[in-house]
Design brief:
Phage_T7_Gp4_N; DNA primase/helicase Gp4 N-terminal Bacteriophage T7-like domain-containing protein; binds zinc ion; zinc ion binding; DNA Primase, Chain A; coiled coil; elongated; alpha+beta; helicase activity
Length: 321
């Protein structure tokens, strides 16, 4: 073991900067730098974080803990003992010629990786369907109330397609704007607290948070007139209160993206469904913070064309669709 330890240290030096592009792929392992992904060893959805922080292929997995590149290979390719992993990596780096990895191994690993990926996508799809059923059920069966303090404080009307519950919460369906299917549900409490469908326990009893579909989902305040084949305006805003204020002031339909980073995706969907529409992005003014709203509105504009306006409808930029 002492021999292997010394060798492991030698390897770590030679392996710096080569983990993600050279060494891991040789074992059929794929990592993405600083992104939450499934764990190559134990799967999951977003439990794995690769940052290579010490240059040793370092990662953290919420399930199987932290480790370096050698330990990740040992955990993922269970055929190898640790000394064997060390010797294989040495041969990949040209430090020895004792490799026992065959093309068959590589082919098998690639296949296993494909299967893991497919299983992952399938789990994700099931989870989204599960959240969609939950959202649809909560919305359909809501015990209705009269008043939302949130709407009252914000001085905005209730769109006929949203609901107020008996405890004063607003329920806003997050739908696929192409076909109208409900995939998620935003709740806004009287004090303005907002959340989507929360986690649940899965079949093995683990607590899972979120997992519902979000990207590209929106909610349309007002109606886009189906017979409008000529130029017409559709506004796009993040939150309900802002969106409804715009609708009340202009009479235009307003698509909500719920969160800033969903603006480009919603814009894209609207452009598919209403190719003649001019999209008016009503960016939230977060200039006091980091300008997130404007940044994503600009990204959306680059994709779909249209106009960006800031609050008070001060026009800051125009581009031709
Ligand atoms: Zn893991």
């Amino acid at each position: 073991m002492k021999q292997a330890k010394i060798q492991a240290d030698d390897i770590k030096h030679a392996a710096q900067g080569k983990w993600s592009d050279l060494i891991f792929p040789s074992f059929g392992i794929e990592v993405q730098w600083k992104k939450k992904t499934p764990c190559p060893a134990c799967g999951g959805r977003d439990r794995f974080w690769y940052d290579d922080k010490n240059g040793n292929g370092d990662y953290f997995c919420q399930q199987c803990g932290p480790g370096d590149g050698l330990s990740l290979i040992e955990k993922t390719c269970t055929r190898f003992t640790f000394p064997q992993v060390v010797s294989e990596v040495a041969s990949i780096l040209g430090l020895s010629d004792s490799s026992t990895i065959t093309d068959e191994d590589r082919a098998r690993w690639a296949k296993e990786r494909e299967i893991r990926k497919k299983e992952q996508l399938e789990r994700e799809r099931k989870r989204q369907e599960q959240i969609a059923r939950k959202a649809e059920g909560i919305f359909r069966n809501a015990y209705l109330g009269e008043e939302s303090l949130y709407l009252k404080n914000k001085k905005v009307e209730k769109d006929p397609k949203i609901k107020i519950t008996h405890d004063g919460n607003l329920l806003i369906p997050a739908v696929d704007l192409l076909d109208g299917k409900i995939w998620n549900l935003q709740t806004i409490e009287p004090d303005g607290t907002k959340y989507f469908i929360k986690g649940d326990t899965n079949e093995t009893g683990e607590w899972e948070t979120g997992g519902g579909r979000m990207g590209g989902l929106g909610f349309m305040i007002g109606e886009v007139q189906p017979d409008l084949y000529d130029d017409h305006n559709i506004c796009v805003a993040e939150g309900y209160a802002t969106g409804m204020s715009i609708h009340m002031a202009t009479g235009y339909p307003v698509a909500l993206s719920f969160v800033a980073n969903n603006l480009p995706k919603v814009g894209n969907v609207l452009k598919q469904k209403y190719p003649n529409a001019q999209l008016v992005y009503c960016a939230d003014d977060d200039s006091a913070k980091d300008d997130t709203g404007r940044k994503y509105a600009q990204m959306a504009l680059d994709i779909t064309g249209g106009i960006i306006v800031l609050p008070q409808f001060k026009q800051i930029q125009e581009s031709i669709a």
